[in-house]
Fold:
Amino acid sequence: MRALRLVTVLALCVVVSACGWADDDGTVIVDNRSDAGTSPDSAVAFRLAAFGEPFTGNLLPAPLLPGSAVNLGQWHEDYYDAEADLALGGLVEWFDVWIHAETDNFFDIY
Structure:
């Protein structure tokens, strides 16, 4: 009888997991859309923080050249602040950006 209960519980777990519980993570992509001909500025650092939290360290694996993008992986659905340091000395800031689950979330640099 105990074995039958265990099998039933395990079967229910499989059924529930197959029903497609919503994933709470969204993909974060930093996209440098600056025009190499008119404003050739590379992003040299990108930091992200959940609202009210301290920023992460630099998340870019290398400088982000004009016309290129980088996928920074999955981040939990929530409000975030972000900032990007540019090679020519500029700073791009985003405030209270909602990271949507199960989709690509772009931080565009112009």
In short: The first helix runs from residue 2 to 18. The radius of gyration is 20 Å.
